[in-house]
Amino acid sequence: MDTLYHKTNFKFSQDAENWIRDRYTDHFTTQFGHNYDVTQINPTSQAEWRASKAGQELLEFLSTYNCNISELSITAHLCNKSEFKRRLIHPHIDFIRPNGVLTVVNTRFNILILGNPEDEMIWWTSVKADSNKLKEVTYINPRTNISYNTLTIPGNLNKKLEELGDYDFKQSNLLTPSAFVRTDCMHTLSVTPGPRLVVTVGFNKTIEELIGL
Predict the structure, then answer these.
(1) Which of 26, 72, 108, 151 sits a CA distance of 20 to 30 A from 211?
(2) pLDDT class for 143, splitting at 50, 70, 90?
């Protein structure tokens, strides 16, 4: 099995973490499901990140790996649900659309800022972007009203899980405090209630390529 994660000891300084929390405070005034903070993927936002103590600390750390930090975008995964038990988010593969072309994100580096570190990440490693299980589906981000197309298993959560069958692997305490995680195959999270904020950077390289295995 390919490497699914690589944990690190990277953690933001308190000043940097305070900047991140302040940046996202307004996002947690409403209830919403897990989603990518697409509002932060723009040149102005990236300039702010890179000028901040948080961005400088993060990019300095990532410069020690096999990547070009000048090409990296820093953003966040967000969630704020009030259910009284863990819930699965929809299984998915991470895609972006640079210049309108659907492109797989092979790896992410994630740092937990808010949330339960025991939340589990789950993988189905045989279901990749070329799987015939996937169809192009249009979604609308409920927080931004921005529509986007992606490849996924159509249907509701139960339909997706039925189609996927048994998972290959799951891991809790993954982001304690941070880790590279594999995102080019089907995966999901089991998240607990309350605000969840994970700073994330995506890569076109595999974990093995990034860390030199």
Answers:
(1) 151
(2) low
Q: Is 182 helix (H, G, I), strand (E, B) or coil?
A: strand
Residues paired with 124 in a beta bridge: 186
Residues 109-136 have pLDDT tens digits of 999 999 999 999 999 999 999 999 999 8
- Looking at residue 59, its amino acid is L
In CATH, the number for domain 5-211 is 2.60.120
DSSP H helices in the chain: 14-24, 43-51, 53-62, 157-164, 207-211
Domain locations in the chain?
5-211
Q: Does the N-terminal peptide bond of residue 177 adopt cis geometry, omega within 30 degrees of 0?
A: yes
The whole-angstrom separation of Cα 95 and Cα 38 is 12
Q: Which helix (H) or strand (E) holds 180?
A: strand 178-182
| Rounded Cα gap, residues 87 and 158, in angstroms | 12
pTM: 0.92
Q: Give CA–CA dist 193/181, Å, rounded.
A: 22
Q: 74-90 burial, b if ≥16 CB within 10 A, otherwise e?
A: bbbbbbbbeeeeebebb
pLDDT-above-70 percentage for the chain: 92
In the structure encoding, which two tokens stand for residue 193, read together? 């209630």
